[in-house]
Design a protein that fits this description.
Strand order of the largest sheet: 1-2-11-10-3-4-6-5-9
CATH architecture: 3-Layer(aba) Sandwich
Order of helices and strands: HHEEHEHEHEEEEEHEHEHE
CATH topology: Rossmann fold
Distance between the termini: 37 Å
Number of domains: 1
Strand content: 15-25%
Largest sheet: 9 strands, mixed
Number of strands: 12
Number of helices: 8
Oligomer: single chain
């Protein structure tokens, strides 16, 4: 394996050298996409994987991520975003088991997380989106694997109906870790909140309103501005399972990557990660076991709308 990695470093067509060449040339893919089709050969370990779909920026594999992830090369992606099934008994299709025992679910998570850590470049970021019950334990696992804790982000979205005898669940957890010291982090500013009725400021900021940065306030680790995806103009009618807001992935991609960086999503779902990467000029590798066809339709047709995002990214 060491010899293989050494060859890749000297190969002008390797992923690392392509990154270096493109950045030195100051390529701006969001306005001028690459002419060539994304070449997965630079990211795999010699196994002849057959993609279900390939674009200029990325490639999608249909299948079980536990079988596909081992075929991807070491240290070749810059950010991982994972939104696995939450093990709460939902019906995603016959290929997805969302009703495992607690121990089985955690063991399953540990396998794909270890693979994602291997695939992640030093300094790269990993985000895991799940309910708090699981992310508490998965955070401990990441710490055991010597990953660097960056943040526990609260995504304030109500999960469903109130549950008798418990507090009303109203947030998801987004774990944010890096592989060693982080390589890329862009501070995000969000608009100063105003009343939708009168247009006035919601807060007085202790009398320092005039001193605030005109680009907005610093993003905190409580994200209360991510809308749930309920309207059909934002999600496919062919997949009734929950979809992620483009605003969530837009923020993650802008915060943790540069143009032409590579993002891995082992649970493609409705394809939100890949649609955002296409629009933002990021390369991507995706895996989806059940609804790959829905993702392909989305990427080919581009008929779904994006949520409005007024974030300001500091350089």
């Amino acid at each position: 394996m060491k010899q293989e990695l050494k060859r890749n470093n000297s190969d002008p067509s390797s992923a690392d050298n392509i990154d270096r060449q493109n950045r030195l040339a100051k390529v701006q893919p969001s306005s001028a996409p690459p002419a060539k089709v994304f070449d997965i050969a630079n990211f795999r370990r010699g196994c002849n994987l057959s993609p279900a779909y390939t674009s200029s920026f990325g490639t999608l594999f249909k299948g079980d991520c536990l079988k596909i992830l081992p075929s991807i090369s070491d240290a070749c992606v810059d950010t991982v975003f994972a939104d696995p099934p939450f093990n709460i008994g939902k019906e995603y299709g016959e290929r997805v088991n969302d009703s495992r025992t607690d121990s089985e679910y955690l063991k399953w998570c540990h396998v794909w997380i270890e693979q994602c850590i291997r695939i992640l470049r030093p300094g790269g970021s990993i985000f895991i989106y799940n309910i708090p019950k699981w992310n508490i334990r998965l955070a401990n696992f990441l710490l055991e694997k010597e990953m660097h804790f960056r943040d526990w982000i609260v995504v304030d979205i109500k999960l469903g109906l109130p549950i008798s005898g418990r507090l009303y669940p109203s947030h998801y957890s987004l774990l944010y870790f890096s592989k060693g010291k982080h390589k890329t982090f862009h501070n995000i500013r969000t608009p100063i909140r105003t009343c939708r009725h009168c247009g006035g400021d919601v807060k007085d900021y202790g009398g320092h309103r005039r001193s605030l940065n005109p680009n907005g306030v610093n993003l905190t680790d409580v994200w209360g501005d991510i809308p749930p995806v309920r309207h059909w103009k934002f999600k496919s009618k062919k997949r009734r399972a929950n979809a992620l807001s483009t605003k969530l992935l837009d923020r993650i991609v802008e915060m943790s990557t540069e143009p032409l960086d590579t993002v891995l999503d082992p649970f493609g779902g409705s394809g939100t990660t890949f649609a955002v990467c296409e629009r933002k000029g990021r390369r991507w590798i995706g895996i989806e076991i059940e609804s790959a066809g829905v993702i392909i339709d989305r990427l080919k047709g581009n008929e779904l709308r994006d949520y409005k995002n007024e974030d300001f990214k500091e350089s």
